[in-house]
Amino acid sequence: xxxxxxxxxxxxxGTQPPADVVRRAHAAGVGVLALTDHDTVAGHAEAAGALxxxxxxxxxxxxxxxxxxxxxxxxxxxxxPEEPLLAAERERIRDDRAHRARGMVQRLGELGAPVTWxxxxxxxxxxxxxxxxxxxxxxxxxxxxxxxxxxxxEWIGAGGRAYxxxxxxxxxxxxRLVREAGGVPxxxxxxxxRRGYGVPDEAIASLVEAGLAGLEADHPDHAAxxxxxxxALAGELGLFVTGASDDHGELTGHRLGxxxxxxxxxxxxxALATGAAPDVR
Length: 281
Known about the structure:
Strand content: 15-25%
Number of strands: 8
Largest sheet: 8 strands, mixed
Number of domains: 2
CATH topology of the largest domain: TIM Barrel
Helix content: 25-40%
Order of helices and strands: EHEHEEHHHHHEHEHEHE
Distance between the termini: 15 Å
Radius of gyration: 18 Å
Oligomer: single chain
Pfam family, one: PHP
CATH superfamily of the largest domain: Metal-dependent hydrolases
GO molecular function: 5'-3' DNA exonuclease activity; 5'-3' RNA exonuclease activity
Shape: globular
CATH class of the largest domain: Alpha Beta
Protein name: Phosphatase
């Protein structure tokens, strides 16, 4: 049984609806799937309703954080979605995402790129607007050839000409909020430096003091030496290690199940959760 603890649906920046994500995961042999859309729990009910017999859904979320000037992403699992402090932060981040997206569209227009808010809104649909939606709009408008081409200093890459900053949580506070909501916090892709998400070892140690439970080591953006270093660090800090596809549908080539979590790590995660239980069909 494959255990994939990090993926996205069209509720955030994936390309497939939650039910379709579940069906694709099942077809790929995934028996335990965590849906971890960015800063939202909106896809959980649909995903749970699509579970085939014998499959398990772990309700999760990928929280947007910032350490100094760098993005950090925190995976939160099996928390109480109604816990007021975490819910309030979730809504604040969501609202700021929409404000930020409009700001980037405005900057693109000032740079002569024919990207309109109507185009971005059509691509976004009912989900939370994010940079991947704007990048897809840029491709459709003929500004760039691929989504990856949009994430550069020339356009909407971090610090780029059309980049707009946004609200994000301090990661220490985020870890504490997840714990207070009965959830289990795991640091997402901490060595994906190519994406601007590299997290220093000393910062990870400070998160452990706040309640961090695990590190996502087996990730498509992690090289073999990074994975080995993360496993060693996890051993030193008393953390469990997870693995996941971080699938975004068409944007990542439908790779559900390409990286997985060991059963003992999944059981450690379940044992720590008091906010919610997995959905099992």
